[in-house]
Design a protein that fits this description.
about 725 residues; alpha+beta; elongated
Length: about 725
């Protein structure tokens, strides 16, 4: 089956990492689904599927049957999700405030004024109000998941609070049952109420922190305006972006954001494209020029024809790439997924064991301790901290990269990049501008405007690849085209042209022999120096006289030397591969202080070179921008494409540097190291928290020092664990790369 589509769909009603696993497994099990990954931090499902086998509507029904929901609307799904999440947040905030408003007097009654007449009945009413009015979702979701044969964090909260409440209710209604056995009938209404209040507070803080981790992607999405001015039947009308179609004619006014991708039909302006290109200088646009959605028009006004709308714009594709990357899973996440899948059943089992152990050790006299410890175990265990550890770090890391013009395709690339110890660089378009330029010229005779105009005219007519460099150079010097008597292309050597009865020629050294021109010693010195630097030499003369010699080369980018130096300081070996000759390779390598280089390489040679490095145990990143680099990019451990390169290079690459500035490469590697460091920190604290918290809640220290964890404190600790993991991830957002 060749029809394969990838979608990023918002998921609603997930409350913890176990929910994310349930949604993921539900969709994965459906026929026609190749891959399904749920990102709990972003509340999204990244799914690859065959539309001929399964529809999005069928996925939606399956997810709804599992107790959740999917947003499958093609248009404005992000807005729908944002609206639903905002509504959910408002409800959560209202419930949190309400729960705490009743929990504070409940806690005071339970811990300070418990001997007041009728205190138990007042506490029962307060606890019941908290559970029914503000904590109802825990019980509804817990029962719903139980009916589907699954469990999540809501199950733990519902179980723990219900057990504490029902036990307290029994002791309130039938206190004599315990008095007859010589025991005090304790009540734990405050535990039920305060547990719900703490869990709600933790969820509220978690939601706020999670929203911060996705601010980068929201910022990208916010670059596109909501409306545009469409010209129809000679009239302008303001319409929603979602209604625009290809070939629509739009009006763009001064200071406005360009609504969609398109081509300028009429008018002239400068456009700030820094959000996509990183270049701070506005780019002049006139008839026929391409403009991109989200870029900002300056002072001019123009009309344009839409060529890319909706998901087909460059900005939308960047957003989709970042969303897909944020939704992907790092290899380390597989361990977490396996643990999360069995987390809740294991915790329930541990709570039961705790309860039984207390009764076996102390008998019925320890019933209250047994119950409190079992409830504490249920409350303190937190699958959310584990579930949030990896995705929050990835979301912040990839968002940070997108803000700095680094697009990372998936979590595998981000995790692998920090291991790179060898970088292989293509020359053309990576280290150099990729466009030949006249770097030097020498005129044995006095230059004149006439000679410059004739040179410009000759090269305008030439089809040689280097002719465009001379055309640009001459035009910059004010050259203009002139009248020509005749023109002839001399195969493999250059061109000749007659102007006012005089023969002029431009081309390689072979033309010197054809026209009998000689080169002076002083001119030869210049030529030899340029050749040593690997530059191409072009000769220009008339009749048998040499007028000028020019050196043409692909100029090294201003930031290449600094980027190579930074990579070297990071302990990374830098290698240069080029299809150009040895002298060119030696010259570029010498200027950039690169010690490993190879010239005259074909695409297959580049791949073999990388295989050889990998055989030596190196972790190799390949950086390129052309079709000839695609084999090597596919072979490397991490592949990096320059954003101004070919589409095939960017399709193959795991990382794209949008601005084609090589200085972004060391930034990307540093970003990878910091993100992976954060993931490991988060996982460490999430695991340690549960490894220490659960035994402590079970009462392992009670025989030693009498310490027994109150369920209220356990719920506070559980809430804090999730929030601390997210806040730790956000440190990257606020730090410099």
């Amino acid at each position: 089956m060749k029809d394969l589509e990838t979608k990023v769909l918002p998921v609603l009603d997930m409350s913890c990492a176990v929910c994310a696993g349930n949604v993921e497994n539900t969709v994965k099990a459906m026929p026609g689904v190749e891959e399904a990954v749920v990102n709990f931090a972003a509340n999204t499902l990244n799914v690859k599927y065959h539309p001929s086998v399964i529809s999005l509507q069928q996925m939606k029904f399956a997810v709804q049957n599992a107790g959740y929901d999917l947003v499958i609307e093609e248009k404005d799904s992000a807005s729908i999700q944002e609206e639903m999440e905002h509504k959910r947040y408002k409800t959560l905030r209202r419930n949190t405030i309400g729960a705490w408003a009743l929990s504070i007097p409940l806690a005071l009654l339970g811990m300070v004024f418990m001997h007041l007449p009728g205190a138990n009945w007042v506490m029962m009413i307060l606890a019941l109000a908290i559970m029914v009015l503000f904590g109802r979702s825990f019980y509804v979701n817990g029962i719903r998941h139980a009916l589907h044969g699954s469990a999540n964090m809501d199950t733990l909260v519902a179980l723990s609070t219900s057990i504490a409440f029902l036990f307290s209710l029994f002791n309130t209604v039938y206190p004599g049952f315990w008095y007859e056995r010589g025991l005090e009938p304790h009540v734990y209404y405050e535990a039920s109420g305060v547990i719900i209040a703490f869990v709600l507070l933790g969820k509220l803080l978690e939601e706020r922190a999670k929203n911060s981790t996705s601010s980068a992607i929201k910022g990208l999405m916010g670059l596109q305006p909501k409306t545009a001015y469409r010209i129809k039947d000679g009239k302008e009308e303001e319409v929603a972006i979602s209604l625009l179609q290809v070939k629509d004619v739009l009006s763009v006014r001064p200071g406005e954001k360009i609504p969609v991708d398109g081509t300028v039909l009429q008018g002239f302006s400068s456009v700030d494209e820094s959000m996509l290109s990183g270049e701070p200088i506005p780019v002049e646009k006139t008839t026929g020029d391409r403009v991109l959605a989200g870029t900002i028009n300056q002072k001019g006004a123009f009309t344009m024809e839409a060529t890319g709308v909706g998901s087909a714009t460059v900005l939308a594709q960047i957003v989709q790439m970042v969303q897909a990357a944020q939704g992907s899973k790092a290899p380390v996440q597989r361990i977490v997924d396996k643990i999360s899948a069995v987390f809740v059943p294991v915790v329930v089992g541990l709570a039961v064991i705790t309860f039984i152990c207390w009764l076996l050790i102390g008998g019925s006299g320890y019933f209250s301790y047994a119950l409190l410890s079992a409830v504490s175990v249920l409350v303190i265990a937190c699958p959310c901290a584990l579930g949030l550890a990896t995705p929050t770090a990835l979301m912040v890391g990839m968002g940070k990269g997108a803000e700095h013009h680094i697009l990372i395709k998936d979590a595998f690339a981000l995790e692998n990049m920090c291991k790179v110890n060898t970088v292989v660089l293509d020359k053309t378009g990576t280290l150099t501008e990729g466009v030949p330029e006249v770097t030097d010229s020498f005129w044995p005779v006095e230059s004149s405007q006439k000679y410059l105009d004739i040179l410009y005219t000759a090269e305008l007519k030439s089809e040689h690849p280097l002719a465009s460099a001379i055309v640009r150079s001459a035009k910059a010097s004010g050259a203009q085209a002139c009248e020509v008597d005749s023109f002839e292309s001399i195969t493999g050597r250059g061109v000749r042209m007659d102007v006012d009865g005089v023969t002029y020629w431009v081309g390689s050294s072979g033309l010197l022999e054809v026209f009998g021109a000689t080169v002076s010693h002083f001119t030869s010195v210049h030529i030899q120096n340029w050749q040593q630097e690997g530059k191409s030499i072009v000769y220009y003369g008339y009749n048998n006289d040499l007028l000028a010699v020019m050196a043409i080369a692909d100029r090294i980018k201003p930031t290449s030397a600094e980027a190579v130096d930074k990579l070297a300081k990071m302990g990374i070996d830098v290698h240069l591969l080029t299809g150009d000759g040895l002298k060119t390779a030696e010259s570029v390598a010498g200027q950039l202080n690169i010690h490993h280089y190879k010239a005259d390489v074909l695409p297959n040679d580049k791949e073999e070179y990388i295989k050889k490095l990998q055989a030596e145990g190196k972790k190799v990143a390949m950086v390129g921008d052309g079709i000839n680099d695609s084999q090597a990019l596919a072979r490397a451990d991490v592949s990096v494409a320059m954003g101004k390169g070919t589409d095939i290079a960017m399709d193959v690459a795991m990382v794209t540097l949008i601005t084609s500035d090589l200085l972004l490469l060391p930034e990307a590697i540093r970003l990878s190291k910091r993100t992976v460091q954060l993931i490991h920190q988060n996982l460490f604290w999430a695991f340690i928290y549960n490894l220490i918290g659960i035994p402590l809640a079970a009462g392992v220290l009670f025989p030693v020092n009498g310490l027994l964890l109150n369920p209220m404190l356990a719920s506070a600790a559980m809430a804090f664990s999730s929030v601390s993991v997210v806040l730790n991830s956000l440190r990257l957002k606020w730090s410099r790369i």
